[in-house]
Amino acid sequence: MAANQAEEKRTALYERHAALGASFTDFGGWQMPLKYGSELAEHRAVREAAGLFDLSHMGEVWVTGPDAGAFLDYALVGKLSAIAVGKAKYSLICAEDGGIIDDLIVYRVAEEDYLVVPNAGNAATVAAELEARRDRFTAGGNAEGCALRDASAETSLIAVQGPNAEAIVLQLVSDEHAEAVTGLKYYAAVQVEAAGVPVLLARTGYTGEDGFELFVANDRAAELWDAVRAAGEGRDLVPCGLASRDSLRLEAGMPLYGNELSREVTPFEAGLGGVVALKSKEGDFVGRARLQAKKDDGVGTTSGRRLVGLRGLGRRAARSHYAVLKDGQKVGEVTSGQPSPTLGYPVAMAYVDVELAEPGTKLEVDLRGKAEPFEVVALPFYKRQK
């Protein structure tokens, strides 16, 4: 027990969550709030008003220097050097065999400054992999043109998601920064002061709703959390845990590493082939040869399997690892599934044989020995009204 406690990681906001009565769960080695009360109420708050999340378990790796963009082009599958300053891009870090090590977001904060944000459970792995790739990229370890700094341990991340998110964030900034908030586009970021605290403010939500993420130093995180809660008092802001975050991202059709994405999955199977810059990016990058071969073989399009959305035609929900059936034969496996609070019926994501991936295809899921009807549908399940 003592050993487990010694290994347990807590965010700078742990005491705030405990004071709110949060139920905690282990996630990527971190003790994170699962829910504060009703996960259904938290889910609905994000869809109808606003939710407040602690995402401080995510990683933050700075890549800086005149060769930072070129290095990221080599290390990741996308063309990151093409990102405009103040913008962001979703990307993947793949192994030589094309398997996905992690999905991540890259922000270009300044001309030579990029921020790479990997998932919590993969943060250390990604940081180490970037170091190894930097050494290869810089010919014998000469890293003068590209420096890496893993800032994960010193950085907190707070997210405000929902229709009222912009109004809440506007309460935190001065009049001179108000236009920077209202003018911030999706997948973009800007440096501002929020409640007097320096933050990198991003707009790259994971819930299917409008929302903002605030990167802040650990020693100012609790102060900022309190300020956001105060700003949201008249806007029905509710603290939210991982349970509602998972149901929200599933409705939005967004993949979760460890469920939809893994080392055994290539971008083409996951429906992320468009992220791989095989045509637009000159030169080699890690995994390029194998990814090109996979694409040429039609993996995820004419051969193999593909990630699809499933709508339940009955009341029972599918769960991760349940078998997908066609005429009694296994043709795939569920990666995520649960009842949709917003839509009122079960939804799931699953990998199925590509010939069965067309929307409208009738399939079944083995729910503990009973085959229940499902139908392939296009992702996402839920799309907010603009």
Structural class: alpha+beta
- By DSSP, the count of extended strands is 20
Q: Hey, roughly how much beta strand do the residues contain?
A: 25-35%
Note the total helix count: 10
Stretches with pLDDT under 50, minimum 5 residues: 1-6
Mean pLDDT: 95
Strand order of the largest sheet: 11-12-13-10-4-14
Radius of gyration computed on alpha carbons: 21 Å
- Spell the H/E element sequence: HEHEEHEEHEEEHEEHHEEEHEHHEEEEEE
Q: What's the end-to-end separation, in Å?
A: 49 Å
Helix content: 10-25%
CATH fold node name of the domain at 2-58 and 154-251: Gyrase A, domain 2
CATH class of the domain at 2-58 and 154-251: Alpha Beta
Binding site for substrate: 213
Keywords: Aminotransferase, Transferase
Domain GCVT N-terminal: 13-279
GO molecular function, one term: transaminase activity
